[in-house]
Design goal:
mainly alpha, 295 residues, two-stranded antiparallel ribbon, 11 helices
């Protein structure tokens, strides 16, 4: 068994893989947060609960309807996105002209309600969700064995992040949406239904969280606390990358996942706090974040 910097190679590469997988979830979740904040100016603290809800929808589709993983990847984001439309129409839309604090408090309350309902109905112990047969097993890379499903999670997250970035930054639809956030009245004068675009943007942001929840279901047990375990770190990722920055969320999410994984090898005691230490350093040097624009 060969070593790298005095550590067994399988241990180092194994922790690096775990870091990349966590980074994939950080990137997907922070991407949804960045879309919602960048386009709607809402700090969506319910994002972790909606991530959890996506996993529960996938579990319910399998448990009660016999609908498997591949259909759940499509249906769960649609279901949670539709729920997001209801939330936006009934509650979120009333906060656009108010201070950010109101949105944070409202969505924090929504998160507590959603998680509390899930906990009351399903308990806190968690329920397993099987890996689909086509993604079971592992590949021998020579220096380590790579579980096929873990590799799929990284690829799926990268593809989804890239697709979202292309739609928002490189298409006419994205240009119209960005213009609507800057001057809604002017865009509406050209016949664009701005309220509908805003609603669909919120739905799209929470659908990204639900997609991440389905990806996470076979790795973590489906339980009411799975979103709460991620959301604080994800907010740190968004702050480091730059509030509202799509590219910043993706790059920072994967990068911090790798840093966290390597810290578990070289200095395990700091693995739970390294991301927040990075956040402090970045905010001191660049308050707008690595990819953010100064106010």
């Amino acid at each position: 068994m060969f070593t790298i910097l005095g550590f067994p190679a399988p241990l180092l590469f194994g922790q690096l893989l775990l870091g990349v997988i966590n980074g994939a979830f950080y990137a997907l979740l922070s991407l949804g947060l960045a879309v919602i904040f960048g386009m709607l100016n809402i700090v969506n603290f319910a994002h972790g609960a909606l991530f959890m809800l996506g996993a529960f929808v996938a579990w319910g589709l399998l448990e009660y309807l016999g609908i498997g993983y591949w259909w759940a990847l499509v249906l769960a984001p649609l279901v949670v996105g539709a729920f997001g439309i209801v939330l936006e129409k009934l509650l979120i839309s009333r906060l656009y002209k108010l201070d950010h604090l109101y949105g944070l408090l409202l969505t924090f309350g929504l998160a507590l309600i959603i998680e509390g309902l899930a906990r009351n109905n399903f308990g806190s112990s968690g329920m397993p969700y099987p890996i689909p047969a086509s993604l079971q097993g592992a590949m021998n890379l020579g220096f380590m064995f790579l579980p096929v499903y873990r590799g799929w999670v990284v690829v799926a997250a990268l593809v989804m992040c890239l697709a979202t970035w292309v739609v928002i930054e490189k298409t006419p639809l994205g240009a119209t949406l960005r213009a609507a956030t800057e001057n809604a009245k002017l865009v509406q004068a050209f016949g664009v239904n701005v309220p509908l675009m805003i609603t669909l943007t919120y739905a799209g942001g929470v659908a990204l969280a639900a997609f991440a929840g389905v990806l996470a279901a076979p790795i973590y047990s489906v339980n009411p606390n799975m979103g709460a375990n991620f959301i604080i770190v994800v907010f740190a990722v968004v702050v480091i990358g730059g509030m509202g920055s799509i590219l910043g969320s993706v790059v920072t999410g994967f990068g911090l996942g790798v840093i966290e994984g390597l810290t578990k090898v070289f200095y395990p005691q700091a693995s739970a706090t390294v991301i927040f230490l990075v956040m402090i350093i970045v905010l001191l040097a660049r308050p707008a974040g690595l990819f953010g624009r100064a106010a």
